[in-house]
């Protein structure tokens, strides 16, 4: 079967046991977290304003995008899930997400205190996205990594390095998600936190954070060739 041009993401899990296998009880939550990650990322781009906590009901464009994501055969490795994401048709192409989850976690670990996650909300970070990453990692899991292969129809100037999330970072993301929900309250919006954040989403995208990457999906503006932030793996 011919697959149209697409971006590929490779989720590398490292569960115990023989290479190329994964315990069912660990794989099912990881795949649910992957679905939630795609949903949170698409919702961040489709939203008219930053949402530290996203509403439960997603728009149809977000649902359609997540429905278009497919899993291919697993790749050689410990357990590598290949994720096929078709390029959106028409002129409405933008970034699927530009999140600072790795940077927020690293900052918290470096300072030995939880960073203000609301300052990263303008870049697409949300409690939902953090929770999805934590779910992929699983309870007491060894962590995971993402690799990327971009469609030649919208190339990047440099290869994107592998992004790794280890248990200390996942624990920090879990705490950050809880803090975002506490700050946002029942309406899911922290006006004070957003006012304290950088003035524009572009300012975050041009920053020097570690592990930041732009993925394409149902956006609000025409896409241009990607310039990926290459922090250390």
Structural write-up:
With 233 residues, the chain is α+β, with helices and mostly antiparallel strands. The chain is 35% helix and 16% strand.
Distinctive features:
233 residues; alpha+beta; two-stranded antiparallel ribbon; 7 helices; 35% helix
Biggest sheet, spatial arrangement of strands: 2-3-1-5-6
Radius of gyration computed on alpha carbons: 17 Å
Distance between the termini: 34 Å
Helix content estimate: 25-40%
Low-confidence stretches: 90-99, 189-217, 220-233
Tally of distinct domains: 1
SSE topology:
Layout: E1 6-13, H1 24-46, H2 60-68, E2 70-71, E3 79-86, E4 93-98, H3 101-111, H4 127-137, E5 144-149, E6 163-165, H5 167-184, H6 191-195, H7 201-205, E7 214-218
Antiparallel strand pairs: 1-3, 1-5, 2-3, 4-7, 5-6
Helix pairs in contact: 1-2, 1-4, 3-5, 4-5
Summarize the structure.
By secondary structure, the chain is of the alpha+beta class. Helix content is 35%, strand content 16%.
């Amino acid at each position: 079967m011919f697959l149209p041009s697409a971006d590929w993401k490779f989720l590398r899990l490292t569960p115990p046991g023989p290479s190329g296998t994964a315990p069912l009880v660990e794989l099912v939550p990881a795949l649910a977290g992957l679905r939630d990650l795609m949903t949170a990322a698409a919702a961040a781009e489709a939203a008219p304003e930053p949402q530290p906590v996203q509403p439960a009901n997603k728009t149809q464009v977000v649902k359609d995008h997540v429905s278009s994501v497919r899993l291919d055969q697993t790749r050689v490795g410990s357990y590598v899930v290949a994720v096929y994401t078709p390029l959106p048709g028409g002129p409405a192409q933008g970034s699927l997400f530009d999140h600072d989850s790795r940077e927020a976690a690293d900052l918290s670990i470096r300072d030995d205190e939880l960073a203000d996650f609301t300052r990263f909300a303008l870049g697409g970070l949300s409690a939902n996205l953090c929770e999805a990453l934590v779910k992929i990692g699983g309870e007491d899991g060894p962590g995971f990594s993402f690799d990327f292969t971009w469609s030649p129809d919208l190339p990047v100037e440099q290869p994107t390095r592998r992004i790794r999330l280890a248990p200390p970072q996942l624990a920090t993301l879990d705490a950050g998600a809880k803090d975002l929900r506490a700050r946002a309250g029942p309406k899911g919006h922290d006006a004070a936190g957003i006012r304290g954040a950088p003035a524009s989403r572009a300012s975050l995208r041009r920053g020097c954070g570690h592990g930041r990457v732009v993925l394409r999906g149902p956006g609000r503006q025409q896409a241009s060739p990607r310039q990926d932030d290459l922090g250390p793996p």
